[in-house]
């Protein structure tokens, strides 16, 4: 079987990690992992695309030279801060109450919930991801997704967690990679996939709080029943600790970071003889310039770590999942901050939970890349794990063309006065079968037939195109060839993958050929609807008039 490659980029506040894995059939091997000091990133989001590009271009070039490959597309993580958590729900009346609930119907319900969710500021916000929480029928309440499939019911309802971030933080990532000429194959909202990389199935099932202590952001993600139930983040982490050491000891930022990594520890009273050791700083002429004890460094670190841990414990308390009978697996801590000496013991002392350090599980080989097995690499390993199931993804091949709407040639328009802005593709009929049907309000205007069947790489067929604007300015005036016009920004991050469960269907999964065939067979025997058909045209008509270009309803598993 042809080997393929997955390249991931973790844009962290203090480091950018480039990772490449080689996949051949079921064999996955991490063949490259390097961390480079970051520039232009603040609290895990791209603040200065120019600086980020400069550093990342060199990092990717180094990987290409060492591996002798050309990376043409990557998977990348979305920011962890400035993300808010909301709830969404949707319900449907089934046409055949005596038939079994299918996975297709569950996916349709998920799509409805995402599309229905009203963003308060759609210009500045975008949906990063969503996770199904429970499903109910008239006879059963709060069932898991795997349990609801196969039941019979007249009405199906679903509840979801929706994670909303800033559009600018996502578009800045696009700006960086567009300037480099590298496509973004997938974007992930990383808390869920990081959990997949470090947590065991029994921990996810019995209840666990995953603390991820990064450089600029620390977060807590709670799982119960293998479902992501809660997420919160604070803008403090390892960089704050480094800043404290720099200020208290009058060190440079680089020296403070090196001292933290080499001698950093929590709980100074537990250091025994090590605490009395002194660190002597010398200049380039070997002349001593400063001296500080390891215990004093530990006191500085512990003071700041206490604030970070207590803030995360507060969020656990606010989640409603704080009791030990819910969090039976206690707390798992990962990220760069987890590598501080006594970090796990300190969290245990402050919280009373059992605490373990979360290292990437050995789902695949790390030979030659020992750094990939460290806690700081958990997010990179999670992205590789989430993407390896997509057999179409090969990061050394050119990415598929992005979706475009093609303006008709002047000869195809029978009436010169017919406004091209009247070309609108209406809702997708029969979501189960995923058949896109184009409706043209103006019969004098024709569209490229590919519009009605473009590839479903973003895992949903409910794509609605807005009115075409200013075609003459875009080169569609008389006498010019067809001009592709890129779709406008969607309210749901198009490439987001929210992979929460290790197995089973997810919010972003595509319909399989078998599911489509099954849906078409059911359609033949379908009873007349007893309610008006669900339509999206009315739902988004006001948005179209304001210029919304398209709505993606594709939220896969974990982009949460």
Note down, in words, how this protein is organized.
The chain is of the alpha/beta class and 560 residues long. The protein has a domain at 202-356: ATPase, nucleotide binding domain (Nucleotidyltransferase, domain 5, 2-Layer Sandwich). Helices cover 28% and strands 22% of the residues. The chain is built from 13 helices and 20 strands. Strand 11 (208-213) and strand 12 form a beta hairpin. Helix 7 packs across helix 8 (253-263), helix 7 (238-249) packs antiparallel against helix 9 (294-319) and helix 9 (294-319) crosses helix 10 (343-351).
List the helices and strands and how they pair.
Elements: E1 4-11, E2 15-24, E3 27-37, E4 41-42, E5 45-46, H1 49-67, E6 73-77, E7 84-93, H2 103-116, E8 125-136, H3 145-148, E9 155-166, H4 167-180, E10 183-188, H5 190-198, H6 201-206, E11 208-213, E12 218-224, E13 227-234, H7 238-249, H8 253-263, E14 278-282, E15 288-293, H9 294-319, E16 331-334, H10 343-351, E17 355-357, H11 378-387, E18 404-406, E19 484-486, E20 496-497, H12 513-524, H13 537-545
Parallel strand pairs: 1-6, 6-10, 10-20, 11-16, 16-17
Antiparallel strand pairs: 1-2, 2-3, 4-5, 7-9, 8-9, 11-12, 12-13, 14-15, 18-19
List its salient traits.
six-stranded mixed sheet; globular; alpha/beta; 20 strands; disordered C terminus; 13 helices; five-stranded mixed sheet; Nucleotidyltransferase, domain 5; about 550 residues
Question: Brief overview, please?
Answer:
By secondary structure, the chain is α/β, with parallel strands linked by helices. Helix content is 28%, strand content 22%.
